[in-house]
């Protein structure tokens, strides 16, 4: 073990982020058995338990935080999400069902409705008197919300909207609270009045009576058993000419007067639609946080086990090697610890940005777009990483990792859906990619085409310089005699930043060039876009990694303790260099790294991992979860006890006269004799 | 759609491999509901159901195939595995519980026991009169079987072995049939006689009486709920001075006479141990097959859905784009179709090799070692790939992929354990890596050290040539004017083979060089080995990919139909080039590819995928599973019906006078006016 230790307490406090106190309070709640999942419960009992748990949250005033003070809330948007995120440690079903009720259903009333709606429906939504479903997704249109087929047609005679499902593909699907508990729903439908379709709007629609029976015209089905999250009663809903009063239109961004005339504060139907959706970004933000927490939990279990478990003896006849001393095991777990730190710091930035926008502190159109891009870039990475981290952690614990009592499969199955809900990850990254293209294009907004052409020629020239490896060769000649120079290059944050940034720029330039070449014919443009889809999505992913790198690097600056700072710097380097290693072919093929430098990279990462190894336990302990959160037998110390007992047995045996000699050693000494 | 179609029937027949008839019969069985999993059953009922299903297999003579004709078997080793593998389509729990009973428990009696043992125990093991556990793994020693701590000490006075568990880490763990159904166990323990430990041997030990009560000295625990495979009653066993007759030692490879003297046909304790373990290789072989089948099932579901599901409109106002027309979706699914083909053909070779050894046709020590290496190289790849393929397939089906009725999560959870049982994947790959090192070293066995030094110098020279990119630059100058030349390079199988082979050789040379430099001091040698562990494991993985490539390429030669041959050649190219793309950084950094060629690779793969796209459904239909095997609502055509109904609705609406106009188009025409 190294002599210097990191300051675990200070680091733990930093990792709690900008809402540390709220997060701690929520973790304390998640540590209580009555709010946790009982893995023995079948679906029906699990659903009932989670509904009860929502009631406990209401009683303890744990859900009001995001709402206006006039309704007993605190107008604390960032803190509210931090609080909900931590419920993932109790049961992801609880986190998501709470998200459905207070984030989506009540959130739609709050953000899409106006004062009258708030007064009328928010109190009962907040108190759970009205459990509600968020009826946006249709079975035929998952991520393509603009294309939902449910209609809300205004009837001037009765001053009502007629909500209607025209065919089976338009059934609302996968809605939490729809199968059993929901009494009302916020329904997204094409608003049609006076023969004009004004696009998707949201309506407050009662769906069940006091006895839990569907109201007239409303029907549905239970989704039944799912891959996970079985504490939530997901289901389908459909509407057959269901009439609601005109005032049930949540009319903040678009209204219909009694005479059927439509008005909106946002002229462009496209921008109006994205503005409405943008108010619901909190779902994505909180999934980013919850997924990062799940990764922390998995790693805290797996690293603890890897520090106790011994397997095979390589350097000693009497003591087997601890798993985490194996290079491969370090590769498997410590690179993921580094990534999880990056994800955690990036999430804190996202929460800050979210709070700035929703509190109104920084709430321009551009701020909202930045927030949405940030969420769309980070949520895919953290949710995919959570699955990858949980799975690798489970495998790193071998057969024990497969036992339900060690938690991994349960977490994996619950988190699985995070990668495709609140926006399919690939669709979200494509949104980010389009934003990158727009930003790139906006650099030329005021230039004439001649200037654009010159810029492109310059880019091509620069790319050609890279392509022919001239930079690369330069690196090669400079470095070839000294591996240390190569290491110095890689650990320089300016170089890390340059590599991570140039990769995005170069890919975006490439896609933009292909789109420009395709011209304005819609079919040709769509074909060109599709032919570059994979590249554009990879640029978006790279953008997310850069955001994480920047957050991690900014977090380093805040660390006081020198030992902690040094170790965390290694960890940031492992994160950055693993990201580069994962795409090493690109950096080489495009002349951003020399062959010589590229060859030294894996070994340099290995050396950093070996340096981090003595700090591994401290690094995961700083995540701050307790045994009540981990709830895995193998993280309890049981493995260390077993190993100690075994070693003690053999120690005594060797000291006694009864120890059998091995045939192998007899043969060896026989051969010598 | 392309005009030429592949010959699906002929391809399906080829994919069934060398045991086509046996495989079909087993698939017919797997299509019967009474042999399938009922997802609604909780653990206890699921366990009881699978036990019953084993009884059905016995009644239908579906389990005897591998056993000697004198016991009613067919001595058909390869066919037996093919038959068991297909049970994964019914329920992985059924496949694995059958594997425990007839592959492991009865297999140990057959392969480690001798004639008397066969006569005494095989009939009841075959008929399931004696359900049995295979008690090898200990909680403290997963993959390190040589280190199990259970002892079997010979007592000359009573002519008995005393089976004993000295401490908690030595409890036998994760054993199928141990929690409930097992009446006996084949127990692996350190054989001690006359004060000498002769290493791990296997003993037949009765564990429960007719009433299911543990016999005296035997104890255990139920493992309870697992991440999956909950139709199997896994549990722990421990032994407190349990006495069994001397003749309960399964004595094919080592025996103890009444007077306690030990004899073995294999002098070296190490080689004896590996020979014993080698007889149990069938577990790994069958997991390779079952995992490949699971990938086929997942892809058949996901590709079918992707061919029906539409989402977003890019080129048409009235028709949305089919998922599989998106480049990213092709990347996600079709690269995995290619890999699954490669895995399927490689598995056929593995089955052939397995049958050759176990039938005695080709059964030298070297054949056995080759078989073990082959199994250890392929099983990790196919089991990891199965998890990756199932997960990507589930995500490609969005929220629908998460519903239990669409099967993915169930398959994933069951297959999860395949990556760490019958040998942890990383441990298996390390074995392969060591074999690669041995083979490399054996090239020098007869050379003096001077020659070795010269060889190494030559290698270093050649590597240096690569390192300075001289080859690469040569490629660059040759190709730079013509992308087609680059494509011709990549599709040439000789180049594919050379790239895939050189990568392994170069990595092995590098590791061997580091080990040689470390010298013979055990601690230094172990340190050097650990510092190269990740590289060595990656070389082993590369070796597995080469084996798959060779199997795929050999399979192409057998295809008669020209259209099928052409399409399958593209598919082989996608497999090979995806493997190269995944490790592109290595090929560039080590001068095996020029920058120019590397840059053209992703686009060339994309073009191949677009060419394959019209054949996607045929390619997965050739896997040959029916709706009875897939059992996923979304593979039934339901999505196509929904889409057709929706399109028909809009067609009619457009043709009528009632179609609302969109505000967007009004604004556009308004702007024009």
UniProtKB/TrEMBL annotation, chains A, B:
Looking at the record, the residues that make up the Acyl-CoA oxidase C-alpha1 domain are: 278-437
Pfam families reported for this sequence: ACOX, ACOX_C_alpha1, Acyl-CoA_dh_M, Acyl-CoA_dh_N
Instruction: Please give the cofactor(s) recorded in the UniProt entry for this protein.
Output: FAD
Q: Where is the Acyl-CoA oxidase C-terminal domain?
A: 493-634
The UniProt record lists the Acyl-CoA dehydrogenase/oxidase N-terminal domain at: 66-127
Ranges where the Acyl-CoA oxidase/dehydrogenase middle domain occurs: 133-242
Keywords on record: FAD, Flavoprotein, Oxidoreductase
Q: Does the keyword Flavoprotein apply?
A: yes
Superkingdom assignment: Bacteria
Q: Which InterPro entries match?
A: ACOX_C_alpha1, Acyl-CoA_Oxase/DH_mid-dom, Acyl-CoA_Oxase/DH_mid-dom_sf, Acyl-CoA_oxidase, Acyl-CoA_oxidase_C, AcylCo_DH-like_C, AcylCoA_DH/ox_N, AcylCoA_DH/ox_N_sf
**What EC numbers are recorded for this enzyme?**
1.3.3.6
Q: Does the keyword Flavoprotein apply?
A: yes
MF term (GO), any? acyl-CoA oxidase activity
SUPFAM superfamilies reported in the protein's UniProt record:
Acyl-CoA dehydrogenase C-terminal domain-like, Acyl-CoA dehydrogenase NM domain-like
**Entry similarity comment:** Belongs to the acyl-CoA oxidase family.
Q: How is this protein named in the record? A: Acyl-CoA oxidase
Recorded source organism is Glutamicibacter protophormiae
């Amino acid at each position: 073990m190294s002599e210097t230790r990191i300051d675990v307490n200070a680091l733990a406090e930093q990792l709690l982020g900008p809402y540390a106190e709220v997060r701690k309070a929520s973790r304390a709640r998640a540590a209580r058995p009555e709010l946790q999942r009982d893995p023995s419960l079948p679906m029906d009992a699990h659903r009932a338990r989670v509904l009860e748990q929502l009631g406990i949250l209401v009683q303890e005033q744990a859900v009001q935080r995001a709402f206006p003070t006039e309704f007993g809330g605190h107008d604390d948007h960032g803190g509210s999400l931090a609080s909900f995120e931590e419920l993932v440690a109790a049961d992801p079903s609880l986190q998501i069902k709470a998200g459905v009720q207070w984030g989506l259903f009540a959130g739609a009333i709050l953000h899409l409705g106006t004062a009258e709606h708030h007064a009328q429906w928010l109190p009962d939504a907040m108190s759970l008197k009205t459990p509600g479903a968020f009826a946006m997704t249709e079975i035929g249109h998952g991520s393509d919300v603009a294309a939902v087929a449910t209609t809300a047609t205004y009837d001037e005679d009765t001053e009502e909207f007629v909500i209607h499902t025209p065919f089976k593909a338009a059934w609302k699907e996968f809605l939490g609270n729809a199968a059993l508990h929901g009494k009302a729903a916020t329904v997204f439908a094409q608003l049609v009045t006076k023969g004009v379709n004004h696009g998707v709007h949201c309506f407050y629609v009662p769906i069940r009576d006091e006895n839990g029976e569907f109201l007239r015209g409303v029907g549905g089905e239970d989704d039944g058993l799912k891959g996970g999250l079985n504490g939530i009663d997901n289901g389908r809903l459909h509407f057959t000419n269901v009439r609601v009063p005109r005032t049930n239109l949540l009319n903040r961004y678009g209204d219909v007067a009694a005479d059927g005339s439509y008005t909106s504060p946002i002229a462009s139907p496209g921008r109006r639609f994205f503005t409405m959706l943008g108010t619901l970004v909190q779902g994505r933000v909180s999934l980013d946080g919850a997924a990062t927490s799940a990764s922390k939990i998995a790693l805290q279990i797996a690293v603890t086990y890897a520090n106790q478990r011994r397997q095979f003896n390589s350097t000693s006849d009497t003591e087997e090697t601890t798993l985490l001393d194996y290079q491969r095991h370090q590769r498997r777990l410590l690179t993921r610890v580094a990534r999880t730190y990056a994800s955690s710091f990036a999430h804190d930035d996202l929460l800050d940005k979210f709070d700035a926008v929703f509190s109104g502190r920084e709430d321009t159109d551009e701020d909202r777009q930045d927030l949405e891009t940030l969420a769309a870039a980070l949520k895919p990475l953290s949710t995919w990483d959570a699955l990858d981290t949980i799975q690798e952690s489970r495998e790193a614990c071998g057969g024990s990792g497969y036992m339900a009592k060690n938690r991994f499969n349960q977490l994996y199955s619950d988190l699985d859906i995070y990668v495709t809900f609140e926006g399919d990850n690939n669709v979200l990254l494509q949104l980010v990619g389009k934003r990158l293209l727009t930003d790139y294009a906006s650099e030329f907004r005021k230039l004439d085409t001649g200037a654009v052409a010159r810029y492109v020629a310059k880019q091509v020239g620069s790319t050609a310089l890279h392509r022919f490896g001239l930079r690369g060769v330069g690196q090669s000649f400079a470095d070839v005699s000294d591996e240390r120079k190569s290491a110095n290059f890689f650990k320089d944050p300016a170089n890390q930043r340059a590599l991570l940034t140039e990769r995005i720029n170069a890919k975006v330039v490439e896609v933009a060039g292909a789109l420009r070449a395709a011209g304005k014919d819609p079919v040709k443009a769509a074909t060109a876009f599709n032919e570059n889809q994979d590249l554009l999505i990879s640029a978006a992913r790279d953008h997310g990694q850069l955001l994480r790198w920047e957050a991690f690097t900014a977090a380093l600056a805040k660390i006081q303790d020198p030992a902690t700072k040094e170790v965390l710097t290694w960890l940031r380097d492992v994160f950055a260099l693993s990201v580069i290693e994962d795409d090493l072919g690109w950096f080489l093929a495009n002349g951003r790294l020399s062959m010589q430098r590229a060859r030294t990279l894996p070994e340099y990462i290995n050396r950093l991992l070996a340096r981090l190894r003595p700090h591994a336990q401290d690094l995961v302990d700083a995540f701050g979860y307790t045994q009540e959160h981990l709830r895995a037998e193998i993280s309890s110390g049981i493995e260390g006890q077993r190993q100690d007992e075994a070693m003690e047995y053999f120690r005594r045996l060797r000291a006694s006269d009864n120890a059998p000699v091995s045939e192998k050693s007899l043969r060896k000494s026989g051969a010598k004799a």
